[in-house]
Design brief:
The structure is a homohexamer of 132-residue chains. By secondary structure, chain A is mainly α. Chain A has 2 domains: 58 residues, AhpD-like; 64 residues, AhpD-like, CATH 1.20.1290. In chain A, helix 1 packs parallel to helix 3, helix 4 runs antiparallel to helix 5 and helix 4 crosses helix 6. The longest helix of chain A is centred in the C-terminal third of the chain and has 23 residues. Chain A starts with 13 loop residues before the first helix and ends with a helix. Chains in contact: A-B, A-C, A-D, A-E, A-F, B-C, B-D, B-E, B-F, C-D, C-E, C-F, D-E, D-F, E-F.
């Protein structure tokens, strides 16, 4: 259960509704997922977060699918169940196949392992990496 | 300083040297970075880790550049300084431009922010994400 | 389900019951939440943890509400669902309004984002911060 | 060393310089810390991050000092050395005394401890916390 | 619900079935837990992960019980609910008593607390630790 | 540099000196490491932390070496450089051989990898683990 409940479209203030409308138009859907309905209790954060996400996830030097997969890798690393579920759904919608998901997980898992080996063995950064 | 010092090629046992040779051949370089020289005190872990990395990072459903960028995103999330430095160098060698790096960081940063908003607002996973 | 089940007041040993009594007296309530009933299997940890919490959370240079909000920010960062739920309840009881919660989450989310940008961009600490 | 070096005011493009000017004016200082000079390689992220920070850290339901202390607690939890150093400096400038810092650390440390006890003992969330 | 559902023994391909057979034989059980059935969608990761686990968890300089307890400590630190549940079960099967579990949690909890105190107080590593 | 500098024995107040004396007596050494000198600015936290550590790390159902190794595994997972360095030194003093350290790191690294695979594949906890 979200801390303060979820704000549905019908109950929403005009400023919240404007963000909801933009989310649905941008994503070409008629549906708002719980994350937005929860943070809608704070319209300033709702608007800033949505506009940041929209700016960051649009096609650029990286395509939207790659960006969604990075989002999944970070969310799995942080153990955020909601975020893994929602961004895995987004990544699949953007074209992630089962094979791509499997490799994504393999890389993310391995990175988590070697990050700790580097920490535990107290490995000093190579001079070449400092000056490259 | 690595916990037990670094094992240079000249001091290495034949089994360690075989891994070093494979690393250099696979990466088309004449250089071994500190991570491998540190974990070489444990030849079993050295061999297993290198063979896992080699299997995981080879071209597949995802290209090597995408894989290196995922590695950087995870390492920045975990705050592993060594891993950020080494995999940023690898990603640049694999073709990551400054623009790609900037977008990678923007996505990874945003994912870390929204992961915590989802946690803090105690957002429940949407039914649609459970059944998709 | 807690690893070893929950120890209710009626089943508790005298030393566990003494801690439960002190928790209820200090908090002016007739209720013990699951966290304490779970760690009560280890009376030494129960007593030490409760006494540490009591010492740390009492009014001092920081007021109890500020302390509860810091607890929530850390728990959301760590993704501990139980801790977010229990300390959000405590913070609200101590006077946290919806507006305060919203700003708390905004700051905690932003800190998690910029923490990773600083890691990923490998930003060196400014000389002024070292000597201040 | 930052990944792509630091962009000093004199080398900066007009759009970056405009952000730098706003940072210095808002903070009433003539100095830009390394974080901004590092992410200035990506003017879009620079502008978005600064404007988000400015919006979030301004006085509201929580005062700026409380917000800086929350920033420090999150940064210490994440182990971001740069962020601990810079936000501890900001918090002290905003009025954090040594006693307040000591209590801040005590709470943040304790939260990290009990977060893990709750995880390890697999404590289930109390019904009262779900419905409050 | 696992992302792609669970692969039961009857539906499994011969290569997946071979890994399942080895898991059951090694663990002297007739049962496969969900983790393996979920990652079986990626037979390469399934095989590599199982063989790594088997190599790492076998008796060596550390006994299997100590290894399982380290696994639990890491999993509680990372907040991975599945991993805490499964490795706590393994550790108990390997001989972990309630008293050992309690001390394990006390140490893991304390380590998480002092880790953050060291970060927050920005404690520099002692010269003696660098050269030891 | 520690946030408020280090408090040496000669400058210490009687209550801080009493803790320093107990640390040296308990550890049979004439030396205090930086962690204690940094948190000594807060004598209440110094005393509580030292007494908690002393209680937790004493021989019990787990021996001191096992406890130090768990401390190292948690610290490497959290990426706390100071804590890895100091507790690796303590573990070696308590009898940890190079082989034991290597296995400790292998287990901790693997746990970090599979923790993220479990998160990413959204593996549901087996019924058997819930009721065991």
């Amino acid at each position: 259960m979200a801390t303060y409940g979820l704000i549905e479209y019908d109950q929403a203030s005009p400023e919240v509704r404007a963000v909801y409308d933009d989310i649905m138009a941008t994503r070409n859907t008629d549906w708002i997922n719980n994350f937005w309905k929860a943070i809608a209790h704070d319209p300033v954060t709702l608007k800033r977060t949505w506009e940041s996400i929209k700016e960051i996830m649009r096609p650029g030097a990286l395509d939207p699918l790659t960006k969604e997969m990075i989002y999944v890798a970070v969310s799995a690393t942080n153990g955020c169940g909601y975020c893994v579920a929602s961004h895995t759904a987004s990544a699949r919608k953007a074209g992630m196949t089962q094979e791509m998901f499997a490799e994504l997980m393999a890389v993310a898992g391995m990175a988590n392992e070697t990050n700790r080996l580097a920490n535990g063995y107290q490995v000093e950064t190579d001079e070449r990496f400092r000056t490259s």
